[in-house]
Amino acid sequence: MNKKTILILTALSITLVGCVNVPKGLEKEQFTLKSLSSIQQSDYSCQCKSIRLGGKVLTAQALPNKTKIEVLSYPVYSISAKPMIDEEPNGRFITYLDGFVEPESLKDQFITIGGTLLKTEQGKVDQASYTYPVIQTNHYRVWKLSQSYYYPDDIWDDWGFFGRRPYYWYGEPEIRYYLY
């Protein structure tokens, strides 16, 4: 390859990387804590630690001046701030949003929040006692879940050694989920 081609490919790749937009206020550089597992007991004392978490909204409750949300926490992508829905959940947390947000519009949605770690709250998950970290949210983003069907690559290879394969040879389409 000549230098001009390398320069064009480099510029194109930098341009495409720049297309990944992090929601405003959720940039990773401004948060000291980035997961539930990184929270220490001493972090609650100062109420000054900033944290970015994401997950699936389990319950939402409208209170007089704020909205309380219980979230099943998933790891968050460092660049896009989207929850990693293919990973295992790593706990739960409670967050408070200022003002009124319709609780029904939040249920079963995926959310990324950025805020301040405040305290812990005791609660129950079914019959078990659970200690929830509580976050006062400054910025948040609700993600939409979409699904697409696709066929694995080997499905399109429909000619075997003895000619075309019968219809029952083909597999089922698989589903992929995306957040946008």
UniProtKB/TrEMBL annotation:
The Gene Ontology CC terms held by the record are: outer membrane
InterPro entries in alphabetical order:
OMP_Slp
- Highest taxon, organism lineage: Bacteria
Q: PANTHER family, from UniProt?
A: OUTER MEMBRANE PROTEIN SLP
Q: What is this protein called?
A: Slp family lipoprotein
The protein's organism comes out as Haemophilus parainfluenzae
